[in-house]
Amino acid sequence: MSDPTTDPCCACLPRDGIHRILVCRPNHRLGNMLLMTPLIAELERQYKGAEIDVVAEGPLAADVFATFFSVKHIYCLPRRGFKHPLSFLSLIFRIRRTRYDLIIDPCIRSGFSRTLTRLFRGRYKLGFNAKRASATLTHIVPETMAPHHMAQRPVALARWHATPASNESLGFPAMDIRLTADERACGRAVVRELLTQQSQRTVRCAVGIFADATGRKCYPAEWWNEFLATLRESSPHCAMVEIVPMHGRSMLASRWPSYFSSSIRRMGAVMAAMDLMISADCGVMHLAVASQVPTMGLFCATDVKVYGPYGARNSSLRTCDMSAQEAARCVMEAFADLFGAPAPRPSGVVPAPVRLAGGRLG
Known about the structure:
GO terms for molecular function: ADP-heptose-lipopolysaccharide heptosyltransferase activity. It is a single chain. By secondary structure, this protein is an alpha/beta fold. The protein has two domains: 20-166, 3-Layer(aba) Sandwich (Rossmann fold), CATH 3.40.50; 181-350, Rossmann fold (3-Layer(aba) Sandwich), CATH 3.40.50.2000. It contains 13 helices and 13 strands. Strands 9-8-7-10-11-12-13 form a seven-stranded mixed sheet, with helices on both faces. It is elongated and about 60 Å long.
C-alpha cells in the first residue's frame, strides 16, 4: 500500500503558504489559452490571496488574462523560440529569478511544458504523469484520472491533491475572459450600429456567425450558404452578423453585416452582445463561450467530449451525417425560444436549455 506522506500520487498539497503560483502552458493557440481560464478560477478558489503568473507562447495570453486581478505576470515566450534564442533565454532566466510555492504543468505529455516545469524553481510541482515516480514533479496525478474535456482537465489536476476541506464534489468553473462592463457596453453599441443595415421592424435578435476553422474542421462556403438560408427562411426576425476571421476576409461573400477586429477582447465584447453565436470548432468558438454568450459549436472532425462548449447555455452539434439544412433545423430546435417552433431533430445534437429571457441588445 502506498504511503500518503511520500507517494507523489497521494500526498496532499498544503492550503497555507501557497502565495506564488506559476501556470506553465507554453502554447500560442487562442483556444488553448481560453481553456486555461477555469484553472485560474479554481486556483483563486483554493488559494485565496495568492498571486498567479502564467507562462504562454505568443501574445494572445496577455489579452485573455488582462482583467484577472489575481494574475500578475503573463510571460509570453516568442513563438518558435529556437529562432529567437536571445529573447527566449532572457525571458526564461527572468522567470527563474522567482521561487514559486507551486508550479503547475496542466498538459498531458507535452515535452516542452514539462521541460520548462523542470527548469523553473518551485517548492511544489504538480502535473499529470503515467507513472508514480517523476524526476520533475513533487505531486503527480495519474493520466487516467484526467477528464475528457480540455478545460476540465487542469481543474481536476488542481483538485486532486487538495486538502480534504477543498476536495468536495464541485462543478467545473466556466470559461470566462471576464469582460468588463465598459467592454460589454461598447460591444452592444457596435451591434446596434451593425443592425441598422437591416430592417429594425423585423429584427428581434442577433445571431453571430463565425464561418472559419482549420483543416477538416472548416465547412465549405456552399454549406454555410445553405445553412444560413434555412435559418433565415424559417426565422426572418433573426439578424445574422458575421464575425470576420483574423485574416480580414469575409467567409460568407460579405452577404451579411460583419465585424472585424484584431483584438480578441473587442471581438469577445461584440459576440457577448449577440443572442447566439454559431461557430465551427475553433478558437473563436471558445472565445464566444468565454465571452458568456450562448454558443452552438458545430463539429465535423474533432471530439465533442474533448472540445465542445459546456455550461448552462451552450450546445454542441455533430454534423458528420447531416446536410446543412438538417444542421440548421437542429440549431433551431436547440434554441427554439430564439428561432421559433422547433423542427424534428436528427440524432447527434446535445440540446441547450432555454436561453435567458430578454435580448442582449438593450
